């Protein structure tokens, strides 16, 4: 499942979600659902659009419940956020969703191979 948090001024959020879904699909993931939280559109006002709705979960309580319900219904094995998540957010969201919650950058980061031990070592 793919989730994005965007300020109201971010007009290209749909294109960003599409690009993230394409990146995940190219790496073998299947995006079974999407959710978007927009700040400053329905509440919070323009002065707070750069701030998360909740420092603990990034999202509003209602959006967290919505994502948890969709995740359960679709059987998604992870919830991937376009936004970077703090360790505290990853833990809190994973607890609420019943699966890992990770930032897109973590998923897309190249895997560095472990170098072989030096000869004779």
Instruction: Specify the number of helices.
Output: 4
Distance from N terminus to C terminus (CA atoms, Å) equals: 44 Å
Alpha carbon gyration radius: 17 Å
Strand content: 5-15%
What structural class do the secondary elements suggest?
A: alpha/beta
| Helical fraction | 25-40%
Main beta sheet: strand number and arrangement? 4 strands, parallel
Order of helices and strands: EHEHEHEH
Mean pLDDT: 87
Silhouette? globular
Task: Give the strand order of the largest sheet, numbering strands 1, 2, ... along the chain.
Answer: 2-1-3-4
> How many beta strands in the DSSP annotation?
4
Stretches with pLDDT under 50, minimum 5 residues: none
Describe the protein's architecture and organization.
With 121 residues, this protein is of the alpha/beta class. It is 36% helix and 15% strand. The chain has a 4-stranded parallel beta sheet, with helices on both faces. Helix 3 links the parallel strand 3 and strand 4 (101-103). The N and C termini lie far apart (44 Å). The mean pLDDT is 87.
